[in-house]
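Service request form, structural biology core

Requester: graduate student, group of Dr. S.
Request type: structure prediction, single chain
Budget code: on file
Notes: please return the result as structure tokens.

Sequence provided:
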Amino acid sequence: MTFPDLRFQRYRQTPALRDFFAEVHLHSRDFIYPIFIKEECDKPEAVLSLPGIYQHSLHSLIDEVAATVDSGINKILLFGIPKHKDPQGSSSFDGNGIIQKAARLIKKHYPNVVVIADCCLCEYTSHGHCGIMENGCLNNDATLGMLKKIAVSYAHSGVDIIAPSGRMDGSVAAIRLALEEAGHPLTPIMSYAIKYASAFYGPFRDAAGAGSVFKGDRKHHQIAPSQRREALRQAMDDIQQGADMLIVKPGMPYLDMIRDVRERCSLPISAYQVSGEYAMLKAAAKAQVFDEKAAFHECLLAYKRAGADTIITYYAKDICQQLQ
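Core staff response, request fulfilled:
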């Protein structure tokens, strides 16, 4: 059957019909909201390169979580900014560290909120790199020992899901073994399985407190944008190591990778709409290039259409308030 018997406009005539035939919908359960907690601040501090996003104190954290829950979101991703930084990032696994305190506080007030914690050294090292540096080079295997300590400390503090983001070789297996040995065999690992060495991370480094100290790049351990097959091998390797869910980061430039991973595995997949994507859309909307709500809605639909189950985005509260 073809035209005139087949008319695709029959599916599109009214908002009700378009919704009836929609193949993908957005719902508040689809979203994970990132929150930055800074140890040495007394009130929220605006991140200038990320409009509408703040570094929170422990005092303001609960208000931020309350607003997140009120918007319909029950999943948050925590990033900590400590007072003390050193080359080893030793404050990362302190039982009274900023993430550990934040997790306990959230669980006290909102026990049903799913707390995911970023497991990386970049926020804690004085040089801003994701691991232990020796003679200007990343020591992958020494970094694994630190990640194990961080993961166990997070789990002891009530974190629900550990999210290793540094993209160290063997990190999932190391963390899985550490959690098992520490009595946390049921704590899931949300691996940043496909993480590209992207130009879109700039505003995040400001938000996470590494922008002023970080020099160089992360091309020696993150995936080059040219690589598709290598990225898939890495994702499959993380699954073999014991990952329970996967992240593709960034989201929009790598929709093909979301689709590729979805076609090859049944694990839950999260797309990360990273800081640069968010800031770019915000800037274009402010310049009246397009409507902000419509542009974000379209991009978020694209992640789900490509195969993502959940979406990490700084726009999560805004989109969920619109959906309500």
